[in-house]
Amino acid sequence: MIETPQQEIIYLDYNATTYIHEQVAAEMLPFLTTHFGNPSSSHIFGNLAKLSIQTARERVAKMINCQSSEIVFTSGGRLFFHFVMEFIFSCFVVSFFSFFFCRFCDLLFF
Question: Are 76 and 84 spatial neighbours (Cβ–Cβ below 8 Å)?
Fold first, then answer.
């Protein structure tokens, strides 16, 4: 929060950006300065980045009591939104076609 002489200003645009907690910044600092690499690459830098992401995924999963495979990191809100919409759409399509396939089989065989 920033104070000006006339009024107090409150930041409300957290969709655009937000602060990083001190502990998170400390954990991320090596990957922003010296330990960087594309986790999709097969070279040593990529392998270290991939291992670090997997370790982070396991730590988060342990904190919220779930499987690490259930943790998905995204680069921001828009990517997360698209990920969720794709999941919902996939579930709808599978359910829709499963229903009509079962109905078709029901009419065909019974």
Answer: no
Give the number of domains in the chain.
Answer: 1
Residue 48 lies in a domain: no
C-alpha distance from residue 104 to each of 3, 30, 93, 99 (Å): 67, 57, 16, 9
> Is 36:45 a contact under the CB 8 Å cutoff?
yes
In a domain, 11, yes or no: no
Query: Is the pTM higher than 0.90?
Result: no
What pLDDT, on a 0 to 100 scale, did the predictor assign at position 26?
A: 93
CB 72 within 8 A of CB 83: yes
Report the chain's terminal Cα–Cα distance, integer Å. 68
Domain of residue 102, residue span: 74-110
Q: Tens digit of pLDDT for each residue in 13-60?
A: 776 677 788 998 999 899 889 888 898 898 999 999 999 999 999 999
Q: Which residues contact 52 (CB under 8 A, 6 or more apart)?
A: 31, 35, 39
